[in-house]
Amino acid sequence: xxxARAAALTSTEVGAIETRVIEPAVLRxxxxxxxxxxxxxxxxxxxxxxxYQVKIVAEAFRGESRLRQHKLVYTALGALLRGPIHALSLxxxxxxxx
Length: 98
Description:
Number of helices: 3
CATH superfamily: BolA-like
Shape: globular
Largest sheet: 3 strands, mixed
Order of helices and strands: HEEHEEHE
CATH architecture: 2-Layer Sandwich
Helix content: 25-40%
CATH topology: GMP Synthetase, Chain A, domain 3
Radius of gyration: 14 Å
Distance between the termini: 37 Å
Oligomer: single chain
Strand content: 25-35%
Number of domains: 1
CATH class: Alpha Beta
Number of strands: 5
């Protein structure tokens, strides 16, 4: 699974250091795949494709504590949090009933 994600990463060079970043569309696809039917909003906070603000509204979060909701997202992102994603601001919730 990580190999497929890694193939979608983009390499950039910062000085003499090569770093990998993740495109917002790829991040959205990973999250939508992990949380089918979710509403996912992604903001690249710095324009560098490694600092993201993510809002997810998903049925999978219903009845779960905020801590558990965030752990579910961290699990979905896996190794991306140890490399391409340097900073992640999360807002998670279950859909509201109308």
